[in-house]
Each structure stands twice: as structure tokens, then as C-alpha cells.
Amino acid sequence: MSSIRLTLKEVLEQRGITRYELSQRTDIKYPIVDKYYKNKVIRYDSTLLLKMCVALDCGIEDLIEVIR
Question: What is the dihedral angle through the alpha carbons of 4, 50, 28, 12, rounded to the nearest 10 degrees?
């Protein structure tokens, strides 16, 4: 069975950015960023993902991985 995994933790670690800093850059509340970081999100918000992509200068494929 396939699934989706968020890779925000790896992206932030590679760039040396904290969850708090991402929260500040994107205006997304820290607890929400933390859920994405810990891959605890059930329904993905495209607006939030776009804000993260812009703030991190990356594509959506850098934040989401399909596991087969």
C-alpha cells in the first residue's frame, strides 16, 4: 500500500532552519509547522505547503515523498 510522507524535517535540517524560524517566515503558527515537521498531518493544506515552499525556496517534491 502506498503512502505519503512529509520530508520537512530533512529539508529544515539541510538548510539549518528551525521550526520556529520557518513559523516566523511563513506566518504559520508553530504548532502547525510542528505537525508537518513530525509528519502528523492527515489533511494537507495547499496554502501552507505553498508558503513553506516559497520560504524555503524549494518545490513541493522536496517536501512530500510518495512511498510505494
Answer: 60
